[in-house]
Structures are given as C-alpha cells and as structure tokens.
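Saturday, quiet lab. Running sequence design on the structure tokens for the scaffold JK sent over.
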C-alpha cells in the first residue's frame, strides 16, 4: 500500500539545510497495523504528514496504492487523500465555526455522499463515540478530550482504506484511550491499514510492527532487527 524510497525532508535557511528526515525506506502492506516511535524531534509527525499527502518530501519517491505520489499533481494527491485516507491530528484540526455534527459531515460532503446516507452515518458515529449530546456544540465548547474524540470520529466516518493517527489518545483519559485503540484494532481486523505515531508502549502493543525513528532515520529495534 505504501512504499517510501530514500525519503528526505529538509528546511533551508540561506546556506543552512536542516534535515527532519534522512533516507527513510519503508514498505507498509495493506491490512497492517504499524506504530512509529521515537523521541520528540525524531521526525515522526513529519513522516506521517508525508504519508497523508499533507506535506511533501524534499527528495525521494512515495508510492501509494501503486501510484507515484511524488510525481502527481496537487489535484490527484488531494483525491487520493480524500477517498482513501483518514487522518487523526495531534492538535485536532476541527473547523472552529462548524458544530460537531457539521465537522463529522464535512468529509462525507467531500466524497459527495447523498444526504440520507450522510445523516445515517453521522448519527451512527455520534452514537458510537458517545457524543450525541455534543452534536450542536462548537469545538471551543468542548474539552481537549472531547475534541480528540470528534477528531478520531471524523477520521473513521468515511471508512478509509488507511488511517493515519498522530498521538490519537494523547488527550484522552485511560478508558477513552482504550476504547479508541480497541476501535482501531477492530477496524484493522476488518482490513483497514493503520499507522500511528505514539509515545505510549501500551498503544504500540496493539500494532504488529514498530518503526523506530531517531534523528530522522529509521533505526534498528532492540532485538537488532530493522523494521
């Protein structure tokens, strides 16, 4: 599903080039549950954003569903993201002037899903996440944990092929966090590919493969195996 060849990401400031990712090579198969771990500043979120086509690598090749993302135009990249990827942001990224209901409905509108089906999907999702009572509230009326729940709900409502999650339980209490991870496990069991960035060993235990990043590079795991 995902193939990254020699991915570099850097930012240039006059004559200085600051590297965020260095020579990253990864293969993620359809149906896998993968965790990306590493210290702050290792490049985890940047790598996730490149996979989600929300950022572009400075050099290297990215193939998604056998399409060469690195040579596609913005319109096609946007279509691939819209139809196949659900993204859970660390900082929520909810639309401030839309209600919870409208935030959940937005990705369905982008996919041109008809009104009756949209209403049904939003109602089911509100119920599934226990946020029916919050449907008419705006993001600034919600706690951080509630905003995170809405962010996760928005990512899964379209039943994407790939879910990319950046610290998906970072603002949730233990019970909520376990419910989200159990949901991811269930979705993965049904065939959804999941890639999460987390500092949590507990969350990482849900995945089948762990990728360790350090200073922008993929490093060997403690068993000495490159993952």
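Result came back. Writing it out in full:
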């Amino acid at each position: 599903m995902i193939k990254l060849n020699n991915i570099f990401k850097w930012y240039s400031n006059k004559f200085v080039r600051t590297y965020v990712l260095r020579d990253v090579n990864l293969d993620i198969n359809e149906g896998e549950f993968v965790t990306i771990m590493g210290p702050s500043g290792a490049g985890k979120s940047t790598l996730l954003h490149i996979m989600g086509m929300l950022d572009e690598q400075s050099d290297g090749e990215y193939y998604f569903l056998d399409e060469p993302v690195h040579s596609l135009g913005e319109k096609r990249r946007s279509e691939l993201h819209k139809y196949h990827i659900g993204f859970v942001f660390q900082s929520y990224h909810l639309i401030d002037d839309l209600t919870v209901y409208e935030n959940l409905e937005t990705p369905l509108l982008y996919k041109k899903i008809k009104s009756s089906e949209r209403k049904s999907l939003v109602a089911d999702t509100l119920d599934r996440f226990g946020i029916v009572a919050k449907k008419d509230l705006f993001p600034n009326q919600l706690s951080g944990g509630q905003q995170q729940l809405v962010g996760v709900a928005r990512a899964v409502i379209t039943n994407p092929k790939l879910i990319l999650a950046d610290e998906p339980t970072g603002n949730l209490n233990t019970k909520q966090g376990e419910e989200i991870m159990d949901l991811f496990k269930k979705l993965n069991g049904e065939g959804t590919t999941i890639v999460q960035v987390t500092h949590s060993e507990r969350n990482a235990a849900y995945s089948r493969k762990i990728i360790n990043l350090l200073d922008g590079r993929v490093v060997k795991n403690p068993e000495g195996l490159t993952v």
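Notes for JK: The longest helix spans residues 174-189. Strands lie at 2-13, 16-28, 33-37, 59-64, 67-68, 85-88, 162-166, 193-197, 209-214, 217-219. Ask whether to fix the surface positions before the next round.
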